[in-house]
User: Which sequence fits this backbone?
């Protein structure tokens, strides 16, 4: 009874919840850091460009490396692909997420910064059935770019002030949504209302 009152309190005035995906709803249990060897000898500017291209396009790793003139070897690209596949295979639902989603009183969507290689992780979990999915690699912008939050608001179809954005990254999931007029909170705090 107390938990239900607390849930109703946190969702008061909320018509839709938008979740981040990685680190929020699902977790990688065996991190491999697949991009680390690819950026080892790159300038900070090239690392930033590589990250943005990986997150906002459907370019393959070798295409990104060619675009930024990164100089990765075939072996490094193959190893990075293997590490990405391993990370995706090691994903699991965050503790408490299935229970929370099964009793969530409002619809929800997902907005996440992802390279195309990680999108398949979403399909691994039948518990996740969002009303919409906004993946940075599909839409060409990424959190905390203001444009991606406008896409969330459009997909939600409710007033921005009635959307609660939930995630684990302060600038992308808390501050960015707030600057766009949504409400926001950290996933740990949000899940605490279901415990």
Assistant:
């Amino acid at each position: 009874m107390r938990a239900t009152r607390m849930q109703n309190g946190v969702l008061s005035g909320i018509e839709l919840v938008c979740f981040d995906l990685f680190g929020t709803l699902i977790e990688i249990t065996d991190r491999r850091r697949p991009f680390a060897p690819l950026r080892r000898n790159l300038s900070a500017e090239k690392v930033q460009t590589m990250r943005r291209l990986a997150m906002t396009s459907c370019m393959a790793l070798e295409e990104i490396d060619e675009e930024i003139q990164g100089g990765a070897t075939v072996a490094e690209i193959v190893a990075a692909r293997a590490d990405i596949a391993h990370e995706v295979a090691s994903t699991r639902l965050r503790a408490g997420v299935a229970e929370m989603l099964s009793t969530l009183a409002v619809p929800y969507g997902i907005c996440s910064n992802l390279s195309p290689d990680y999108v398949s992780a979403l399909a691994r979990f039948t518990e996740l059935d969002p009303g919409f999915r906004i993946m940075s690699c599909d839409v060409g912008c990424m959190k905390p770019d203001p444009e991606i939050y406008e896409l969330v608001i459009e997909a939600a179809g409710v007033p921005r002030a009635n959307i609660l954005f939930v995630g684990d990254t302060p600038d992308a999931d808390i501050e960015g949504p707030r600057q766009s007029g949504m409400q926001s909170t950290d996933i740990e705090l949000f899940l605490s209302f279901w415990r």
